[in-house]
Structures are given as C-alpha cells and as structure tokens.
Amino acid sequence: MWIPSDPEIRRLHERVAPTPEAFDLVWTHCEIVCRIAEQLLDRLDLGVNADLVRAGCLLHDIGVYRLYGRDGTPDFTGYIRHGLLGHELLRDEGYPDYLCRFCSCHTGVGVTRADILDQGLPLPPGDYVAETGEEELVMYADKFHSKKTPPVFVSVPAYTLSVARFGPDKAERFTRMVDTYGAPDLSALSTEYGHAVAG
Fold it and tell me: Core-most of 91, 102, 113, 126, by most CB within 10 Å?
C-alpha cells in the first residue's frame, strides 16, 4: 500500500491551492485534524493503520480549493460538494481509491443516497460514508475543527447540536462515535493555534 509522505502531501496542497490564504486555511485545518486523530490513536487501541490515518487527515479537505474562482474568491454555497471534488482531484492526480475516499466520505457523519434524494443535495446519488476504521477516524476527528471565519474548535455538545439539524439519526450516529472514540482534548490545541473552542 502506497502512502504519500507529509512533504509530498504538502507540495500537492501548495500546487493546487488558488491563493496563499486558501492554502493556509485548508492546510492548517488538515494539520489540526491530524493532531486530533493522533491524540485519539495515542489513547485507544483501534487496530488501524496510523500512517494511512495521517495521510487521510492531511488530504481530506483538498477539494475545498476547487470552490475558489479564478480570481481567488471562494464560493462556499456548494460546500457540500468539496468532498467529491477532492476525490476527483486526487483521482486525476493518480492517487489510489483508498486515499481518494478520505475526501468523499468525511462530510458530516456520512452522506447517504437517501440524504441526497430527500434533501435535494447537489451530489450524484450514492452513499458517501466511511467504511473502514481509518475513514471513520478521519471523519470523526474532522468534526472538532471548523474552517469558518475565524476558524474554531468545536466541542462535542456544539457539534451534536449542529448535526441534529440534519436529523436525529445523524446526532445519534455522532453520539455513538463519541462513545467509541471519546472526546479529544481541545484546550492545548486551542492555545497553540489561537482558535477559540465553540460551545
């Protein structure tokens, strides 16, 4: 199994980022998600490939760059598409499917065909859900940091409230993941990165 190194992934980000500001926003978020996942790996015996989790964390949001216009202005109205856009970007770069899936399968707590049809989401009908332990851990770690302006860390209660807007089943799924992985310690990361903790 080929797993790209951190410098290789960073170079890809730098090459496809439309502006230095976009790179800083997305790369910093991916680094933070990686730090959260590693924190959880350090205290749990999950039987997952830690190197693959790391690569997945650093790659998962690369599709966000494709939401920027030619002038470098972001258009996040179709933000839900960023996972599939990242999957396509990595596929076009020759990355294997097991890496591309970190992009398409990390949104929310999983986007199903029923979600797409019931909510009229601008995605091709399909199930975009984590299937492996590595995919689920990346998806879970991602829930604890937001790239909004300004970026913030997200507590368990805040994310539970947020995801409940998409149905009680989504909040229940997140709660089950909290029971499995526990809540990360966000305080030190908040201090290090200067991002507040919401909720």
Answer: 102
